[in-house]
Design goal:
Layout lengths: L2 E2 H17 L1 H11 L4 H18 L5 H15 L4 H16 L4 E2 L1 H19 L8 H17 L4 H17 L24 H16 L1
Antiparallel strand pairs: 1-2
Helix pairs in contact: 1-3, 1-4, 1-9, 2-3, 2-9, 3-4, 4-5, 5-6, 6-7, 6-8, 7-8, 7-9, 8-9
The chain binds adenosine-5'-diphosphate (ADP) and magnesium ion (MG).
Magnesium ion binds next to loops.
């Protein structure tokens, strides 16, 4: 499928489904190095997003992303709501009024999302946050696009790299977010926001 409005809507639905499937796992990850609410937060947020998407009508992927942003910011508390909300808001701005994303547009969207998270949360790669998954995804997407891959393959490269990026948080000490209060005790645990980022990007591939 082309990365068009129907894809963006299907991405939203598949994201809600995968977050629901992995809610308990995300709660457990966040209980280990945070306060245990990450799975519930995102599940509530993406349910609200699906309701809003069901109730609306959309002409572009960017319009879908704007609705995702608005709903996440208003329904997901904590760190993740504003961070993911900013990611989708910046993604929407990068998508503009295009009706379909080609490989370069997709790289621009993912880059804008990552940069939005970074500007909001001030985390760098290696701080054991969702930035580790987002940045790995952006780098892989840019490499795939530069090699001439089409948008579906670029997206798949991004999602695969996000998994590796999430795994890369396991041995790290956290320097941002609640996990940073734990010092060495965070070592050996995966960052929940990096893991949920990997699930969100996988849902985008499954929709394509
Ligand atoms: P809270 O920490 O407020 O309970 P969540 O549990 O929903 O919020 O989300 C925690 C996730 O948010 C972390 O796993 C991490 O990926 C991400 N996070 C927290 N602080 C930052 C930050 N400053 N920059 C980027 N990501 C962050
Ligand atoms: Mg939490």
């Amino acid at each position: 499928m082309a990365l068009d409005t129907a894809w963006a809507i299907d991405w939203v639905r598949r994201t809600a489904a995968t977050i629901d499937d992995h809610r308990a796992e995300l709660v457990t990850l966040d209980r280990e190095i945070g306060d245990g609410d990450h799975g519930e937060n995102l599940d509530r947020g993406f349910r609200a997003v699906v309701e809003a998407v069901d109730a609306g009508s959309f002409d572009t992927p960017g319009a879908v992303f704007t609705t995702v942003a608005t709903k996440l910011i208003s329904t997901v508390g904590g760190a993740a709501g504003p961070l993911f909300g900013t990611a989708y808001l910046k993604a929407a701005q990068a998508a503009g009024d295009a009706t379909e994303l080609d490989a370069d547009a997709l790289v621009a969207v993912l880059t804008a999302a990552r940069d939005g998270v970074v500007s909001r949360g001030k985390a760098e790669v290696g701080d054991k946050t969702m930035v580790d998954a987002w940045s790995a995804a952006v780098d892989a997407a840019a490499t795939a696009a530069a090699a001439g891959e089409g948008p579906e393959r670029v997206l798949e490269a991004a999602a695969d790299a996000a998994v590796t990026g999430a795994e890369s948080t396991d041995p790290l000490v956290a320097r941002k977010g609640r996990a940073s209060y734990l010092g060495d005790r965070a070592v050996g645990h995966r960052d929940p926001g990096a893991q949920s980022t990997a699930y969100i990007l996988r849902a985008a591939v499954d929709a394509a």
